[in-house]
Amino acid sequence: MTTNERETGGAGPEGATSDGRRLGADPARATAGSESPRERFVARYGGIYEHSPWVAERTFDRGAAPSTDEHADTAELVQALCEGLSATLAKATTEEQLALIRAHPDLVGRAAIAGELTDDSTAEQASAGLDRCTPEELTRFRALNEDYRGKFGFPFVMAVRGHDRHAILEAFEGRLGNTPEAERARALREIDRIARLRIEALEASS
User: Fold this and answer.
1) Within 10 Å of residue 116's Cβ, how many Cβ atoms?
2) What are phi and psi of 21, to 5 degrees?
3) Could you confirm whether 104 is annotated as catalytic?
4) Measured between alpha carbons, how far is 143 from 18 in angstroms, rounded to an integer?
5) Residue 134: how many CB atoms within 10 A of its CB?
6) What's the number of CA atoms in the CB half-sphere (13 Å) around residue 25?
7) Cα–Cα distance between 201 and 135 in angstroms, integer?
């Protein structure tokens, strides 16, 4: 190797090192446009299911990830995304489904009060007025959260957009009478509903 080759990082095309990188190039910038279709899909939809990017990853891996090339109409794209992601969740093991349910925060729970929710969860709870509970309502939510977790072993999940706190409290109390199996199935349906609302909002903002 010549002295010049040592100084430039090894033999290679003019202005490049031996591994093909341009001299003086920013590595971060060099990789910014090199994401794979899978990485782009997961980056966009990995947060749709609460703290569970595996739903988007598996949807892509089994060839069920729609694209704007296939669905130019936004409504069609949203429907295809919902069907693909929901089917992935349905194929997951019971343990994985339970882990996803448990990834959701309590309504008006400690995380909400401490401001530790995801942006989506914060907006959803605020849309239902859950950030404006009276002291009496806070007491009811805390008691219901404790009773529900004690019975089912996971948090109460509800797609709260379009509902007010009175309707949510009524649903909360009513669902406490369900069996664990029925309530797990209900929670998964609610999670799919939350996912649809998030996808609709995401695509509408694009």
Assistant:
1) 12
2) -80, 140
3) yes
4) 65
5) 9
6) 15
7) 32
Q: Name the residue with tokens 């990830």.
A: 65
**In what helix (H) or strand (E) does residue 196 lie, and over which residues does it extend?**
helix 180-204
**Is 46 in contact with 103 (CB distance < 8 Å)?**
no
Catalytic residue among 51, 71, 104, 163: 104
- Of 71, 67, 14, 16, which is closest to residue 37 (Cα–Cα)? 67
CATH numbers and ranges of domains, the chain: 37-204 (1.10.3330.10)
pTM, two decimal places: 0.81
Contact at 8 Å (CB) between 13 and 4?
Answer: no
Residue 22 bridge partners (DSSP): 16
Q: Which residues pair with 16 in a beta bridge?
A: 22
SS3 content of the chain, % helix, strand, coil (to 5): 60, 0, 40
What would the pLDDT profile of 86-111 be if each residue is shown by its tens digit? 999 999 999 999 999 999 999 999 88
